[in-house]
Amino acid sequence: MDLKKSILEEFVEKMPAIRKSLKLSQTELGEKLGLSRQSISSIERKIVPLTWDTFLAISLVIMVNDPNVLKKLDHPERYKQVIESLKTESKNTLLKEDLYV
């Protein structure tokens, strides 16, 4: 199975518990992501698939609110790899943007 697909499937199973552990309602999480409460609810109920971009955005919200939440997942090392790649991508993007200033 594709690593991204595997991560998304595991994450969506735990998403309601993670959101609640951060003391965020569906509305509050949606506001942080630019999504509606209905969108968050649909993702959590598996009506709408969780996209990679939304997963990454949620991961950033989690890191800001409680960086230890990801350690509670079944395979935290996979999420650590994702977070590290996010940091690398962010640095590369910033460097590219700085070249155009």
What is this structure's SSE topology?
Blueprint: H1 3-21, H2 26-33, H3 37-44, H4 52-65, H5 76-99
In short:
The protein is mainly α and 101 residues long. The protein has five helices and no strands.
Named CATH topology? 434 Repressor (Amino-terminal Domain)
User: How are helices and strands ordered from N to C?
Assistant: HHHHH
CATH class: Mainly Alpha
Helical residue percent band: over 70%
Q: Using the 3D structure, state the CATH architecture.
A: Orthogonal Bundle
Number of strands: 0
Count of discrete domains: 1
Low-confidence stretches: 93-101
Q: So how many helices?
A: 5
| Shape designation | globular
The biggest sheet amounts to: none
Can you say what the CATH homologous superfamily is?
Answer: lambda repressor-like DNA-binding domains
The Cα radius of gyration reads 14 Å
Main structural class:
mainly alpha
Kindly, what is the distance between the CA atoms of the first and last residues, rounded to a whole number of angstroms? 42 Å
Kindly estimate the percentage of residues that lie in beta strands according to DSSP.
Answer: under 5%
Report the average pLDDT across residues.
79
Give a verbal description of the structure.
The chain is mainly α. It has one domain (3-99): Orthogonal Bundle (434 Repressor (Amino-terminal Domain)), CATH 1.10.260.40. The chain contains five helices and no strands. It has helices at 3-21, 26-33, 37-44, 52-65, 76-99. Helix 2 (26-33) packs across helix 3 (37-44). It is globular. The model is unreliable at 93-101 (pLDDT under 50).
